[in-house]
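User: Teach me something about this protein's shape.
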Amino acid sequence: MIKLRLKRFGKKFEASYRIVAMNNDSRRDGRPLEELGFYNPRTDEVKLNTEAITKRLEQGAQPTQTVRRILEKANLLQQKARA
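Assistant: First, the predicted structure itself:
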């Protein structure tokens, strides 16, 4: 199964993340199938490739909870009504 998840990079204590499409059983920092965006938690900077993300979601890729929150903030996922 393909997942949309975060890949860590940057210096110690100054982490940044790339949003990537990877196989479910790959390592966190392994080789991704495709890089889809960027997230910096220190400055809340987010850059997304919206076309590629929607394409992957249509193909059945499952985002992790953190990536799901980032995509909901960017209005790429329809926010579900919380019961």
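Now, about its shape. The longest strand covers residues 2-11. The chain has one domain: 2-73. If you'd like, I can walk through any region in more detail.
User: That's plenty for now, thanks!
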